[in-house]
Amino acid sequence: MSVPKKVVLAYSGGLDTSIILKWLQIEYGCEVVTFTADLGQGEELEPARAKAKLMGAASIYIEDVREEFVRDFVFPMFRANALYEGLYLLGTSIARPLISKRLVEIAAIEGADAVAHGATGKGNDQVRFELAAYALNPDIKVIAPWREWDLSSRTRLIDFAEKNQIPIAKDKRGEAPFSVDANLLHTSSEGKVLENPALEAPEYVYQRTVNPEDAPNTPEYVELGFKAGDAASINGIEMSPATILTELNALGGKHGIGRLDLVEGRFVGMKSRGIYETPGGTLLLEAHRAIESITLDRGAAHLKDELMPKYAELIYNGFWFSPEREMLQAMIDKSQEHVTGTVRLKLYKGLASTVGRWSDYSLYSEAHVTFEDDAGAYDQKDAAGFIQLNALRLKLLAARKNRVS
């Protein structure tokens, strides 16, 4: 790869990306532009600006992308009820394509010839960042310092920081007990004290949810309104996508909802253990499946469920901008045309349960399912012929088996 003259770095303001900023300047002698995204991680981002300026960043971008994140990435994913390996709500995975998109866009604005990220060579994020970047600009160069440098230990990183006058927070001098990634959809914690999957995660790992045992002893009810598959209101009050997810996070976290202890299969081949908190997303998934249950035809619903694992795997593996994900998205979005209505959830001690759902587009017919007099809505005698036709091939199979046995 030719030596880049200007690089756009995904910059958190933390120790690792600050070291990367300085390393890029030293290693390549290039200008470094920083991009810091406010994805709802709950941290003050202005210190990142001051730190980037102190370290000589050529330009500094700090952007609030929360609404775009929820509207254009989280909500489309939730229309599919996506779960990786049946459990994981893909909180980290879904944020990476947005960050890569802005890196590539800023590179075009700044006339930069490369982008850089702080993902390690062991994880999934390097794949997600880079596949997204190449899908958006096939000529972009991607620099992944963790795959290039020899700063392979915390001690070497600290030494490099001290040698280059990079500010080090006191809590960074020792071994961090675990690493955290956060955005408006979730928090993800892994490493160190969490690496042994046989041991229960310490309570201090959890940041967004109270312990379900300490949650309120009185249930709370919330009504979530949907329009064409997307959450649009809470308790009848219409809100923006990011505001809805923020409110749902507060509700779910208060009741200890959304905790997950998962050993997952990474795309790069190894298994890893993570502690995830997705309080708002857990409420959203429960409510979305509930409104689909009365507005989505059985055939469409079952086909969605069959395709969902593939869709979730594409997002987990970094293929958000692939044609196959877009094809699946088009099908999913078509299915959501009449997924409009309201769901009432009961929140209590770590659980979100659907207790009511209604819609002007409901396919539920009480007249057809009642155990009382249905006034001719359904002729039970019709079921006999239905069963006989479906039993025909089973009868033929049984007859053959008896013939040859």
Structure in words:
The chain has 405 residues and is of the alpha/beta class. The protein has three domains: 6-65 and 92-175, Rossmann fold, CATH 3.40.50.620; 180-296 and 338-358, Argininosuccinate synthetase, chain A, domain 2 (Alpha-Beta Complex); 366-398. The protein has twelve helices and 14 strands. Helix 3 (66-79) packs across helix 7, helix 4 crosses helix 5 (125-136) and helix 9 packs antiparallel against helix 10. The longest helix has 23 residues, at 382-404. It is elongated, with a radius of gyration of 25 Å. It starts with 5 loop residues before the first strand and ends with a helix. The mean pLDDT is 94.
What are the salient characteristics of this protein?
single chain; 405 residues; alpha/beta; Rossmann fold; Argininosuccinate synthetase, chain A, domain 2; 3 domains; five-stranded parallel beta sheet; five-stranded antiparallel beta sheet; 12 helices; 14 strands; 19% strand
